[in-house]
Amino acid sequence: MVRRAVGGAGAVRGAGVKGTRRPELRLPVLERYEEGGLEPDGDYDGLEFRELDLSGQDGAGARFMDCAVTGCALDETRLPRARVLDSVLAEVRGVGTDLAGATLRDVELTDARLGGTQLHGAVLERVLVRGGKIDFLNLRSARLRDVVFEGCVLVEPDFGGARLERVEFVDCALKDVDLSGATLTDVDLRGAASLEIARGVDRLAGAVISTGQLLDLAPVLAGELGIRVEG
């Protein structure tokens, strides 16, 4: 059974920037999940979680393979060290969802409404985040490779100490980003609808930005370099 094809359209960007490889998921026929809550170290394969209230549930260390999570509430849901593989999360919502140290590989997250999501120390590979709004996303010390943020709003995302490789921002708003101590390689910010960097502007080496973005960031860059601009 073929579940995904990586690469495809959009895999090549401007000169000198390696394009991202997006997940292209083909889920099998799914079975509706009817078991109620989550379990620590649970094994969930080929299941559809639809419009369930998973708030406060403990799924630490669980594995989700070929799953669809649609319209579920994830307030304070505990999923540290979880593995989410070849799966789709659509229209999920919640505050304080804990995915610290989790692995997300070949995942699509669409139209999410999340706040304070904990992904510090997580590994994201071939992940597409499309639409929705995520406030105070904690990706400190996370590893992101082949990740696309598209058409979404990220308010105060924290990439402190994270490693970003082949990460692309397309038609999304980035508000008060923290890049302190981050390492960027082939990160394409040119398509961001807005780009506001609160901390870590000195970590932009390894990223590509547009001329307009450079002009917008000029005051922040001048302040970082200790340059006084008058007149």
UniProtKB/TrEMBL annotation:
Which residue ranges does UniProt annotate as crossing the membrane?
none
The protein's matches in SUPFAM superfamilies, at most eight in alphabetical order, are given as: Pentapeptide repeat-like
InterPro entries documented for this protein:
5peptide_repeat (IPR001646), Pentapeptide-BTB/POZ_domain (IPR051082)
Pfam families with a match to the protein in the record = Pentapeptide_4 (PF13599)
What is the name listed in the Swiss-Prot or TrEMBL entry for this protein? Pentapeptide repeat-containing protein
Q: What is the lineage of its organism?
A: Bacteria, Bacillati, Actinomycetota, Actinomycetes, Kitasatosporales
